[in-house]
């Protein structure tokens, strides 16, 4: 009877330790729960055994982006053999496959310099990115900006006129390979390193 009566009584609290805190026996259950939660929290944090943990914010990011949303490159900058004449010719800029009316994007923060016509009487947009760097986009069916307007990277600046869009990048008036400015990784990049030699003088 005495055992049954004691079984229904609350268990007396353990006496406090020397520092005034409850003894480990009293807080064993809650302490075990807290330690389990702490171990789960540490699992979600960065792994201290990974020597590269925390380096992601320090990775260099490209300052420029693609001028179209769906990247499908048709032609690359460099010398090629003309399918018409059979001789060497310089193909300037990157040529992207696009749909008519597709959005054309600014590759980086810039200011609109000019909206005019190129040698083929096609609408072309020129953006000044500072430090002598300019990008030229065309042909366009319509320009959605005006000269002197500042634009940010990825902003829609025009609409593609047809099935292709050409991006040219120049530094101090000299055309360069746009891939050098974009610094974008391509899975076909090793093949791009094989360029045709400079054509012989006539």
UniProtKB/TrEMBL annotation:
Signal peptide: none
A Pfam family of this chain: Peptidase_M23
M23ase beta-sheet core domain ranges (all copies): 91-161
Domain of life: Bacteria
InterPro entries, sorted: Dup_hybrid_motif (IPR011055), M23ase_b-sheet_dom (IPR016047)
Residue numbers spanned by region Disordered: 1-58
Record-linked SUPFAM superfamilies: Duplicated hybrid motif
Protein name: Putative peptidase
Organism expressing this protein natively: Enhygromyxa salina
């Amino acid at each position: 009877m005495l055992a049954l009566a004691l079984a229904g009584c609350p268990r007396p609290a353990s006496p406090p330790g020397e520092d005034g805190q409850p003894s480990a026996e009293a807080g064993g259950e809650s302490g075990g729960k807290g330690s389990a939660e702490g171990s789960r929290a540490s699992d979600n944090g960065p792994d201290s055994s990974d020597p590269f943990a925390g380096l992601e914010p320090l990775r260099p990011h490209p300052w420029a982006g693609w001028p179209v949303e769906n990247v499908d490159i048709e032609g690359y900058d460099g010398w090629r053999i003309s399918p018409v004449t059979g001789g060497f010719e310089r193909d300037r800029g990157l040529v992207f496959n696009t749909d008519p009316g597709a959005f054309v994007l600014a590759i980086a923060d810039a200011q609109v310099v000019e909206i005019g016509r190129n040698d083929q009487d096609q609408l072309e947009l020129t953006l000044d990115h500072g430090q002598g760097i300019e990008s030229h986009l065309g042909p366009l069916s319509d320009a959605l900006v005006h000269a002197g307007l500042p634009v940010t990277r990825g902003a829609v600046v025009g609409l593609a006129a047809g099935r292709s869009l050409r991006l040219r990048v120049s530094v101090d008036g000299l055309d360069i390979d746009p891939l050098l400015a974009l610094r974008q990784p391509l899975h076909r990049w090793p093949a791009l390193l094989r360029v045709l030699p400079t054509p012989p003088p006539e």
